[in-house]
Amino acid sequence: MTVAAPLPETFLPELRWSSASLDGLGAIVMIHSPEDDTIRAASLAQALGDEPEVAAIGRVLEQLMDRLELLAPETAAREMKPLPAGTGKVAEALEAYAAGDHTALDEVAVVQPGSEYRQDVWAAMREIPAGETVSYAELAQMAGRPLAHRAAASACANNMVAFAVPCHRVIRSDGGIGGYGFGGTQTKRALLAREGINP
Question: Quick check: is 167 catalytic?
């Protein structure tokens, strides 16, 4: 008996996207694959000036697909269904997260391109419980390379799956907030405040 090789990503169904508004901070936007309910990219869409939220979401979806085209071209080649997915594991988990269930995305699978060490750092980030923070140094230790603080910080900065890989829970050793690429430090503070943390 022969077993068929798995289909290349380019032959799989179109990618889907979901979004949910988050406490006046904007809308979380997630691109996911329907065959395995796996998040492939995510960000926060914040309106610019008088821009409506739907336009901000469209802009962010384009940016995410451009990034996937650069870093994961086989995934980007699948293209994306224009209309949002209103049902399914990712859409429902995202709605629950936006409604205040900070653990709702914990069990949703994620995939993003990156080195073996970055994969270790991102996996370690997923172990940080809601309502808690770790320093970049502690994150490096959790990922198995305690002296690689800068590499751990770089993994945070290059995280493509925000919220499901909660880089907002990583702060500086001195208690400072540190950087945040999904809306800046004000957004990072607001996300931590939602979880009961005031760094």
Answer: yes
Q: What is the rounded distance in angstroms from the CA atom of residue 97 to the CA atom of residue 147?
A: 33
The answer, as to whether pTM is greater than 0.70, is yes
CA 36 → CA 39, 40, 95, 111, distances in Å?
9, 11, 19, 11
**14-17, Cβ contacts within 8 angstroms, sequence gap of 24 or more:** 14/78, 14/79, 14/80, 14/81, 15/40, 15/75, 15/78, 15/79, 15/80, 15/81, 16/80, 16/81, 16/84, 16/85, 16/88, 16/90, 17/61, 17/80, 17/81, 17/84, 17/85
pLDDT tens digit sequence for 111-158: 999 999 999 999 999 999 999 999 999 999 999 998 888 999 999 999
Q: What is the pLDDT of residues 24-44, one digit of tens each?
A: 899 999 999 999 999 999 999
66-112 pLDDT, tens per residue?
A: 999 999 999 999 999 999 998 999 999 999 999 999 999 999 999 99
Q: Does domain 114-194 have CATH number 1.10.10.10?
A: yes
Assigned architecture for domain 12-98: 2-Layer Sandwich (3.30)
Domain ranges of the chain: 12-98, 114-194
**Given the residues 104, 167, 170, 171, the one annotated as active site:** 167
